[in-house]
Structure to design on (143 residues):
């Protein structure tokens, strides 16, 4: 499982022109793009959620847990693109939707269990993501 997290001052995700998830924190929040591979499981989703929640990338070296920052979770199978050969990425390392969808949901649920206010995109949909990256701060997490 991979998470590309961005510190944001606002973020939203839309499907077919309708906003399906949005965060507009008073201070900062996190946008988490989540990719799943074949060997991932619920335990890894929980551990990554805890790592994200406690990661000190907000102002004054604080974490989302410290300031109760909201998190927008968006599934992103392209985090497992293999571009080593040719010009067309391979998606073989990305788990199929039937395996990935429950793990992205488990990641979001684990964040909620830690006390986070979580918004999400729609798994498998063509989503439009809008964000204002604060910093910019972008961090890649993987276990």
């Amino acid at each position: 499982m991979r998470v590309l997290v961005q510190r944001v001052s606002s973020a939203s995700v839309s499907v077919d022109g309708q906003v399906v998830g949005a965060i507009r924190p008073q201070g900062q929040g996190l946008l988490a793009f989540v990719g799943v591979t074949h060997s991932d499981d619920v335990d890894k989703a929980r551990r990554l959620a805890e790592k994200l929640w406690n990661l000190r990338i907000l102002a004054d070296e604080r974490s989302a847990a410290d300031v109760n920052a909201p998190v927008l979770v968006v599934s992103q199978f392209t985090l497992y693109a293999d571009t080593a050969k040719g010009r067309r990425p391979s998606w073989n390392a990305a788990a199929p939707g039937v395996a990935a969808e429950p793990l992205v949901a488990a990641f979001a649920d684990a964040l909620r269990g830690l006390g986070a206010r979580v918004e999400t995109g729609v798994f498998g949909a063509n989503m439009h993501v809008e964000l204002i990256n604060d910093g910019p701060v972008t961090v890649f997490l993987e276990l």
The chain has a mean pLDDT of 97. The two ends are 7 Å apart (CA to CA). The domain at 2-142 is CATH 3.50.80.10 (D-tyrosyl-trna(Tyr) Deacylase; Chain: A;).
